[in-house]
Prior knowledge:
The complex is a heterodimer of chains A (182) and B (323). With 182 residues, chain A is α/β, with parallel strands linked by helices. Chain A has helices at 11-28, 44-59, 77-80, 111-121, 166-169, and strands at 2-9, 35-40, 65-68, 99-107, 128-136, 148-152, 160-164, 173-180. In chain A, α1 packs across α2. In chain A, 42% of the residues are buried. In chain B, α1 crosses α5 and α1 crosses α12 (287-305). Chain B is globular and about 55 Å long. Chain B is α/β, with parallel strands linked by helices and 323 residues long. In chain B, the strands form 2 sheets. Chain B has a 5-stranded parallel sheet with strand order 7-6-5-8-9. In chain B, strands 2-1-3-4 form a 4-stranded parallel sheet. The interface between A and B is medium-sized, with 22 and 34 residues.
Amino acid sequence: xxxxxxxxxxxxxxxxxxxxxxxxxxxxxxxxxxxxxxxxxxxxxxxxxxxxxxxxxxxxxxxxxxxxxxxxxxxxxxxxxxxxxxxxxxxxxxxxxxxxxxxxxxxxxxxxxxxxxxxxxxxxxxxxxxxxxxxxxxxxxxxxxxxxxxxxxxxxxxxxxxxxxxxxxxxxxxxxxxxxxx
Amino acid sequence: xxxxxxxxxxxxxxxxxxxxxxxxxxxxxxxxxxxxxxxxxxxxxxxxxxxxxxxxxxxxxxxxxxxxxxxxxxxxxxxxxxxxxxxxxxxxxxxxxxxxxxxxxxxxxxxxxxxxxxxxxxxxxxxxxxxxxxxxxxxxxxxxxxxxxxxxxxxxxxxxxxxxxxxxxxxxxxxxxxxxxxxxxxxxxxxxxxxxxxxxxxxxxxxxxxxxxxxxxxxxxxxxxxxxxxxxxxxxxxxxxxxxxxxxxxxxxxxxxxxxxxxxxxxxxxxxxxxxxxxxxxxxxxxxxxxxxxxxxxxxxxxxxxxxxxxxxxxxxxxxxxx
Lengths: 182, 323
């Protein structure tokens, strides 16, 4: 069995995709008033930063950006055990009445987003919450769907979709890693 | 050390831990600080877990700190103290714990007057055991919160010069600090009357100062231990006034130091004995930040010891519920 690697989006394709997503976020919210972009640790945060920068470039508005680490809201602590590195959670002030857009790299089972919704509820009551993901790979285990999608990928159960961001991985790309029997 | 149990089953002391494990606890404590600053100071992490705080010795700070840590992680907590429980009827430690375990608990936090009590218990029950101070042995979460407070201030532990002052002989805080600091690469010294120094203290790899002035000149930080007042009647020191005159950390003494010396104290303080009020309330005191950090460190320990039960994963896979 060998690992087969396929680049789904290269750096410029990621940039184009994020630009379209940034535009859709502004359009869906009728502008940038009350908008808060919240990235999920890790990699969702860097994507959120890119989206905030793209909105700033196109609309000239600095949208507040938050970061959410959902580790403490996971539903698998009792079975899998603690994940050693817990990241930081920081929201830019109150989210009461705001339009919150959650940004994550890959949407798979939906459990991360379930945890993120629980965590956001502990910080306040947004007017509404939307979900923007760079990759939707299918395979949902919960009734959760994205509002804004960068790209849909038909990945099989054992496959891995790796989103790479400059700040962590040194390059920007989306890679599908699948196991093949030769 | 596996991914599922990064610290093993129990936290009994800092001596058995590696430097990496201690650093992991400190790193994990960082995000837990923020939870106590939220309007809703609670995360659901330990929902459904039951923690018993078994305190055979008096304690305010440590017990309440553990209780806050447990509650902010959504665990259910029960407090048992020796007075008013079957312990005062002569029940043994193991019987008490086994009876609690029969009611399906997940963790025990134990404070006991006998050195080794936590380890003794850990080997006899299935629940995770956290040592909250055992006799003159260790008080690991106090050591950890001292390390976290030092790291907050200096941004590093390695190479720091820390002097532990006072009654080292009877102090579990001193032992946990010495182990933790040395494993993270700090230089450690102790200072106090010869009568309150353990024999062969230098074998723990620490420098011994017999004059507080020398310690202050050398150190980046002083961790000033509480002089347990009952030691005076036991003949270890001539009088409290004498102790303060010779070993008390005073503003005058600190003003002669070549650098600002950070002041730590595990509490409760005897103002005017081992530490003067000017120093305790002064600009270089981090005594209250220590208390704040105590909750975060205990949350980190509870989190890192919890969960990771493969048998639950198996039953979940087999479709019998679970997560």
